[in-house]
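Our preliminary data section would be incomplete without showing what the modeling component actually yields. Below, a chain of 170 amino acids is followed by its predicted structure, encoded as C-alpha cells that our downstream tools consume directly.
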Amino acid sequence: MSLPRSSRNLHLPNPTLGKPDRGSRPVRRRRISRLRQVLMGLLLVSAGIAMLLALLRLPSQLDTVLLVSTAIANLIKGLTLVGMGLLQLAGVLAVALVALLALLLLGAGLSRWLRALAPNSASQASGPREKRRGPPTFDEPQPLPPEFEGDPSLQWLQSLRDDGGGPRFR
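Predicted structure:
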C-alpha cells in the first residue's frame, strides 16, 4: 500500500525570511590558488627541516643523556613522593576509623552498663520473647510432643530422662 504523492514540495518555516538581514551574506568558500598551495607546502617542509636540524645540533651543545636521565630520576622521585603521600593519608584514615570504632564501642558499653545497673528497668522484660513465654526452666524434664512419643529413634532420650543418671540438659 503506497501513499499518494503530493505535487507540492515540503516547505519548512524559515525565521529569517520575515526579517531581511543585510549584514549576513551566504559564506562562499574561496578557492586557494595552486601557486599559494605550493608555497604553503614549501614553507611547511622548510620549517620541519629547520626544526630537525636544530634538534641534531642540540647534543653538541647539551648532554642529552644526562638530560633524559635527570628527567627520569625526577619523575621517579615525584612518583615516590606521591606514593608516600597516599600511604600516609591511608594511615591517617585508618587511625581515624579505629578511633571512631573505639568511641562507638565505649558508648555501647556504657549504655549496656547503665541498662544493667538501673533498678527495675523496663528493658529487662520488654522483648517479644519474654512477653510470649517466660524464661525456659530446665529443672524438670519437658514432655515430648505427642507426635514424637512412639518414635524409636528418640528412645535413648527417654531412657536418659528415666535414669536420671545422664547429664542435665541446659
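The helical segments are 34-61, 64-117, 128-132, 155-163. The chain is about 55% helix and 0% strand. Preliminary results of this kind motivate Aim 1 of the renewal.
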